[in-house]
């Protein structure tokens, strides 16, 4: 009896499910074409003025000054815990002040502009 229960249940469920399914005709699926707009003639675009050639951006610092700042900031930041950040801010200050104090710390009295620069929080900007 148990051997017939499963096939019978399967047959009954197949019959019940086929009642709810609609028969379909085998064939390629049909898709409705989207509605098309009538094509209207377009007017030619008015001629535009050619844009002038763009000039390359000027360097932020002359080559001799860049070499000066790179070497001075390299010495100034030699012992810094975060070398990249120190060199970045030292370079910014060097560009604006045209000087970097000697040594790795202190001596800011040698360059008052460098000493007096402050960040947005009111702390010294230059290392």
UniProtKB/TrEMBL annotation:
Pfam families: GASA (PF02704)
Family: Belongs to the GASA family.
Spans annotated as Disordered: 27-61
UniProt entry keywords in alphabetical sequence: Signal
Coiled-coil ranges (or none): none
Signal peptide: 1-26
Name of the protein described by the UniProt record: Snakin-1
Bias kind Pro residues: ranges: 31-61
